[in-house]
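Sorry to interrupt, but I need a hand with the structure work. Could you write out one complete protein record for me, on any chain you like? Could you add the entry underneath, on a fresh line?
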Amino acid sequence: MSKTPDWYLIGFEERKEILQEHIRMAVQHPENKDIRSYTTYSFGIGDQEFVVMYETDSLLNWSHVTEKLREARARKWIVKETPIFLGSLIS
């Protein structure tokens, strides 16, 4: 995920509040019961600032939660979100 340069001109406390809203929306979504999320900073890797990884048994649920997150205030500063890998765990 990449953010606009304007995102980093916002004070840290306000950015923190905006991200907390985003996280709250995801965590409280009724279809987010089995979705695990991992986020890491990744400056310099493919011009992405964050890499977000998800584990879930239901891509449909993940897609519904992601769709709802498009309403979050943080969306204003997101330039692009590009899925990199998608796969299934086979035991």
